[in-house]
Amino acid sequence: MLRAMLGPGADEAIRELRERGIDPAAMSGLPTDPAALQQAFTQMQSMLAASGDEPVNWQMAHDLARQQASSEGDPSLTPAQTRQVLEALTLAELWLDAATELPPASGSPRAWSRAEWVEATLPTWRTLTEPVASSLSNALVGTLGDAMGEGFGTDLEGELPGGIDATQLLRRLGSAVFGLQVGQAAGTLARDVFGTTDIGLPLLASPTPALVASNVDAFAAGLDAPVDEVRLFLALREAAATRLFTHVPWLRAHLLATVEAYARGITIDADQLEEAVRSIDPTDAAALQQALSGGVFAPHTTPQQKAALERLETALALVEGWVDEVAAAAAMPHLPHTVALREMIRRRRAAGGPAEQTFANLVGLELRPRRLRDAAALWSQIARDNGTQARDAVWDHPDLLPTAEDLDDPAGYSTRRAAAVDEAAEVDRALAEILGEDPDAAAGA
């Protein structure tokens, strides 16, 4: 079951469990031998003791994330690395002043190790993952619980042999599994990200520009461009995104609320899961694994979720497209490899990576801007038509945000926006007439 739920990361998660004194193999097969059965119950009790009552075991997630982050080495930053990062972020802010109306963020720039990135961002991963963890935990209790109770000759409300509560066991098993999965993905991301905004979502409650020095250096090592130029380009993207999330106060809450709305609606097909469990011999581990690997944990998307997903994908594309456009505009006069670096980052974001795929499996969506190029073209069109001030003013209110239709036809955005303004003015005039006010004054207001 663990292998089915964790996929490619199962071996690492199972190894972590064994290091904590929990051997999943001892819990499988429901042995009839009294000594072996007692061992299985002992392992179950260890699992109960190791997992808390939260949907995700965050202590386990934290420990594994730190372990994964340092698996390829994570030495403390040297004074030279820290200075290079801080100088790059400071210079990036100066260049951005010529490319956007949004002022710098108030937070001081940071140079981080991978472990420091984990510590700073885990609270946001909690916000992202707990809703779906709760939903899947409830589904597991509602379906596997009955089957487990029957297998032990009891019901879900009673205790299993050895004084183990079946409901508690399943919930804490789920808590441990999600803790392992979140920890593994966060730790893997820590070896790959450049800063706090790479995935399009602000991972800090108080936006602060930061770069993970070792990841920047590793990325630059495989490129033809000088490392200083690569660092500056990445600093421009990080600083631009931080400005956006700092001075558009509703944006972070909007994005995270959309993710939560999508995640809270995630369910699994209880009938399909129950049929898979009931149709096999619970002592046949191979058959159980095959049944659980057959898509029974696949989420089923509702119309409401599809709408939330479309809103999220559009918003992520708009954020990424704005950052892409502004950072490139700021870099072009100074960095010779701007065009090549911009294209490389675009392809990197479009492709994603194994850790992002893990979160896609966990949260039920991919945090990738599928329409990055369309969004960048839209922001560029707005700036050409009306200037950078008008482009940045679009972020003044969520109602002003471009839609998927605007991404389809960037050239027609200004016309549609003007028509929407005229329509709103007509509504204001009509209301003014009803209220006995001056229609022209109301429309002008």
UniProtKB/TrEMBL annotation:
InterPro entries: Zinicin_2, Zinicin_2_N. It comes from the Bacteria. The keyword Transcription does not apply. Keywords: Hydrolase, Metalloprotease, Protease. Signal peptide: none annotated. SUPFAM superfamilies: Metalloproteases ('zincins'), catalytic domain. This is Zinc-dependent metalloprotease. It comes from Cellulomonas rhizosphaerae.
